[in-house]
Amino acid sequence: MWLGLDDTDYLDGGCTTLVFHELLNALPCKYGTPRLTRLWPFASRRTRGNASLSVELFTDEDTILPWLEEYWNEKLVPLAGKVSNSEHSNRKQYPSDPGMTLFAQQPDEDYYWKAVRGEVTFYQGGYQWGGIGRIGAAASCAWREHSTTWEGIAWRKGERGVDKDVLAQVDGIEGTFLCRDPRTKRGLISPRGNCPIMFGVRATSFDVASHATNLLIDGSKPTIGSRVFVTNQASGDHIEGTEIDTVLDKEVMPGGHVLINKKYLAFSESGELNKICQWLLPGDRFECIGLSYENKIHLEGLQILDSTQKSRPICSCGTRMKSMGRSQGARCPACKAVNTEGWEFKKRKIPIQGWVQPAPDKRRHLAKLLL
Hints:
By secondary structure, this protein is an alpha+beta fold. The chain has helices at residues 16-26, 61-76, 109-117, 133-142, 164-171, 206-218, 272-279, and strands spanning 2-6, 30-31, 35-38, 51-58, 99-103, 127-130, 149-156, 176-177, 197-203, 223-231, 243-246, 250-252, 258-260, 264-266, 285-293, 296-306, 308-311, 322-323, 330-331, 338-339, 344-347.
């Protein structure tokens, strides 16, 4: 059987991973590896981290249904209806609306793909409790783990604090990733705000995530528990494919955002990605990935395929030629020499070869590392 949970948190508090951890600790049956699933980043009712949880249960309906019904009413119903406003965004905030689902078999995989790439409605079937959270809960159950990473999460008892030297040690372990910003060495594993998470350390295997979690717990302020989840983070599942295009126009907007072809948007906070977009000129060819939202593609990666500078040729006398008219070549204004081609083409040296992505602290949880 498959159990899912979502939407127990809000901006100023709560944490669905902790709620799920406590639920797992209380279960009257054995269970599989807990799963943390990130979904479509632009979902209208998305939670703070847009993560849902699920797990396989090794039990039967007669045993687990009465227990879940009691647990839902006693522990999860009181978490509904909490809301707070954001100090950083004008996006409407919705009250927490927990949802829990139980299925005898995993839901159709197609439901996961729709939920990670767009807005979806409720999944029909199984046993379901609660409100909007049922969407994420069912989508997490439907995930088939094609591309996985791992995250070890610990929850704090009081003040949040992680030893910098231990964090540096963990950052150097082969198999951990995005522990620190490589530019500033600032830690990337601890959230801000009032949520109870002490840290979340990401890794490419369970063993590495477990080892890193234990090291960090020893180097942290007191914690109340920890758990390692298998996740779809860094999978790129939210992106359907790449696009190849040619720069027709470029606009540097107020605040430093760059808009290419009135379609591709690179935010000022995206670091090198924004800089490479500012460098582009009309005629340059590029390949990119990003999420389509409100008629724009929010760029998550870009590589330049070709950049050729076009200019009028320099005459043998040292003067730059000028056009003689449409498709008529160029003439030197000094000595009247003629060049029938009319243009010279010179390859520009691309400042950053290969894929360029936003700064590490500005990437989505789902963003795949591009090489």
